[in-house]
Amino acid sequence: MHTEHIDYKHGDATLQALLAREGDASAPRPGVLVAHAWGGRDAFADGKARALAELGYVGFALDMYGKGVRGTNVAENSALMKPLMQDRGLLRARLRAGLETLRAQPGVDASKVAIMGFCFGGLCALDLARSGADILGAVSFHGLLTPSGGPNEPIQARVLALHGYDDPMVPPDRLAEFQQEMTASGADWQVHAYGGTVHAFTVPEANNAQFGTVYNERAARRSWRSAVDFFAEIFS
């Protein structure tokens, strides 16, 4: 497997992604952006980029905060995420910088690109779709389903939200509002909700029941299988 760090810019910010692919770049293949959780681009996001490469895609773990910028606790993570949550226009512009960087890489089929993300990254995936970006798909794993608070462009991507039904950060009424939003947008959307499952269910280290973040092996396995099938469908 070939992996490399890719530095790119958005405004004054220098960002760094991890690109992963198997084999050389002679034959273009679909590319999938991986949007990290609220702590910044980390080993978990990089691992998902590698897992996508094993499926025959180009995985691209993007960077929403800045090269080397990581949070180490709840307060730091929240402080890093807050400016982008408060300015969804900035968030979308930064996502598009990552999208265009991926499309420019050798061996990427620029017509076959999608995004997936986890927690805050799930919101990123959905917001790239909401921006009207010409991508084929967007997958949210236990994502924040917070509406953008402003007008959205027509959604071109197919949307898959993989959700813990007992997630305290996205209660059932918020889930229902999200589904109504997707229907009103005319999007091709799916929601898979896992019973007895809370936030961060794909993260093996998540073990804070009081905070509502607990790993669930069954939901993690099922959600990954659903995402794999989804990518096979949209890239066919």
Radius of gyration computed on alpha carbons: 16 Å
Q: Name the beta content range.
A: 25-35%
CATH topology group: Rossmann fold
Helix content: 25-40%
The counted number of beta strands is 10
The tally of structural domains comes to 1
CATH architecture: 3-Layer(aba) Sandwich
> Which term fits the overall shape?
globular
As laid out across the biggest beta sheet, the strand order is 1-2-4-3-5-6-7-8
Question: What's the pLDDT, averaged over the residues?
Answer: 95
Helix and strand run: EEEHEHHEHEEHEEEH
The fourth-level CATH homologous superfamily is: Alpha/Beta hydrolase fold, catalytic domain
Could you describe the largest sheet, including whether it forms a barrel? 8 strands, mixed
Uncertain runs: none
CATH level 1 name: Alpha Beta
Helix count from the secondary structure assignment: 6
Task: Please tag this protein with its features.
236 residues; Rossmann fold; 10 strands; two-stranded antiparallel sheet; alpha/beta; eight-stranded mixed sheet
Structural description of this entry:
The structure is a single chain. By secondary structure, the protein is α/β, with parallel strands linked by helices. It has one domain (2-234): Rossmann fold (3-Layer(aba) Sandwich), CATH 3.40.50.1820. It is 36% helix and 26% strand. The chain is built from six helices and ten strands; from the N terminus they run E-E-E-H-E-H-H-E-H-E-E-H-E-E-E-H. It has helices at 43-54, 74-86, 88-103, 120-130, 172-185, 217-234; strands spanning 2-10, 13-21, 29-35, 58-61, 108-118, 137-141, 158-164, 189-194, 207-208, 213-214. The protein has an eight-stranded mixed sheet with strand order 1-2-4-3-5-6-7-8, sandwiched between helices. The protein has a two-stranded antiparallel sheet with strand order 9-10. Strand 7 (158-164), helix 5 and strand 8 form a beta-alpha-beta unit. The longest helix has 18 residues, at 217-234. The chain is globular, with a radius of gyration of 16 Å. The model has no long low-confidence stretch (mean pLDDT 95).
